[in-house]
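Lecture 7 notes: from sequence to structure.
We start with the chain below.
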Amino acid sequence: MALDSQEKKTIIEKFQTHEGDTGSPEVQVAMLSKRISDLTAHLKLHPRDFHSRRGLYKLIGQRNGLLKYLRDKDIGRYRTLIEDLGIRPLK
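Predicted structure tokens for the same chain:
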């Protein structure tokens, strides 16, 4: 379930805005998206795992908050990010 260090490093390298960046909204959203996709796959195998489902909903809420922040701060970065991740259609 948890991301291993190699997966984290790959995600950070792909979405960082500058060298050494690990906390920008882009990196955080990408990490949350990976965890969300992993949990979604888990729930397809275990549909009655309600504790994990609650955790999934919390992760989705966190990601939505970060995306809202990024959308309000810089719409260009927001659009680039959602296109790269393929998480929602552009409006």
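Points to note: The chain has a mean pLDDT of 94. The longest helix spans residues 50-73.
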